[in-house]
Recover the amino acids of this structure.
C-alpha cells in the first residue's frame, strides 16, 4: 500500500480527533461528543491495519470492517436522533437502524461468514448513514430561525462530509473486484485503495471544520 495518501489519510483522522477533543465542551450541546471516542477508535483501527498490511501485505481486514460498519451506523444514528428538530423522524430512524442491525446479524449468522466482505451490507450501511444525513438537511433547510441555523451549521458540515463520502466509497467497494481485475490505477496507485482514502481525507476535513465552527459560533 502506497503511503502517498495513507499518511495524509491517517493525519486527517488524528487531526479531526484532536479538534474534537479541543472543542469537546462546545460539541456536547450539539450531541457531537460521541465523535471523540469514535474518531480515536477509527484512528487506532486504521493505524493498526496499515501497519499490519505494510508488514504482512496479505492481511485481511474484513473482520475488522464488518465490526466497524455497524458501529459507525449507530454513532451517526445517535447524533441525528438527539437533534431537537429531528424529533418527528425519530421513530423512522429507530426502525431503520434496528432493521439494519438485524439484517447484519442475520447475514453473519445464516448467510455469509464474518471473515468475508459483504457487498450488500456495505451498501446498506452507506444507505442508512446517508439517509440520516439527507433527512437532517431537509429538516435544517426548513428552519426559520437564523440563530438556530447558525447553531446547527457545524452539523451541516459533518453531514456534507458523510453524504458525499459514503455513497462514493460504498459504490467503489462494491466494484472493488472489477477494479482489482482490471488493474485500475491512478498515477500508478491502485484505484480501489486511493478512492476511500481520498474521500476519507475530504470527510474528516469537513469534521475538523465543523468542530472549529462549534467554537466560532459560540
Amino acid at each position: 500500500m502506497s503511503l502517498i495518501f495513507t499518511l495524509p489519510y491517517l493525519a486527517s483522522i488524528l487531526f479531526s480527533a484532536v479538534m474534537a477533543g479541543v472543542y469537546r465542551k462546545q460539541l456536547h450541546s450539539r450531541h457531537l461528543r460521541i465523535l471523540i471516542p469514535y474518531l480515536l477508535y477509527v484512528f487506532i483501527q486504521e493505524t493498526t491495519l496499515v501497519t499490519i498490511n505494510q508488514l504482512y501485505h496479505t492481511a485481511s481486514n474484513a473482520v475488522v470492517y464488518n465490526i466497524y460498519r455497524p458501529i459507525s451506523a449507530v454513532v451517526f444514528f445517535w447524533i441525528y436522533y438527539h437533534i431537537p428538530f429531528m424529533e418527528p423522524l425519530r421513530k423512522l430512524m429507530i426502525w431503520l437502524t434496528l432493521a439494519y442491525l438485524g439484517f447484519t446479524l442475520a447475514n453473519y449468522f445464516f448467510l455469509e461468514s464474518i471473515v468475508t466482505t459483504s457487498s450488500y451490507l456495505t451498501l446498506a450501511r452507506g444507505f442508512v448513514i446517508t439517509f440520516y444525513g439527507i433527512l437532517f438537511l431537509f429538516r435544517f433547510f426548513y428552519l426559520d430561525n437564523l440563530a438556530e441555523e447558525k447553531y446547527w451549521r457545524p452539523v451541516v458540515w459533518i453531514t456534507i462530509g458523510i453524504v458525499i463520502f459514503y455513497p462514493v466509497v460504498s459504490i467503489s467497494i462494491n466494484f472493488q473486484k472489477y477494479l482489482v481485475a482490471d488493474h485500475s490505477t491512478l498515477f500508478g496507485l491502485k484505484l480501489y485503495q486511493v478512492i476511500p482514502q481520498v474521500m476519507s481525507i475530504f470527510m474528516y476535513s469537513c469534521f475538523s471544520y465543523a468542530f472549529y465552527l462549534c467554537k466560532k459560533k459560540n
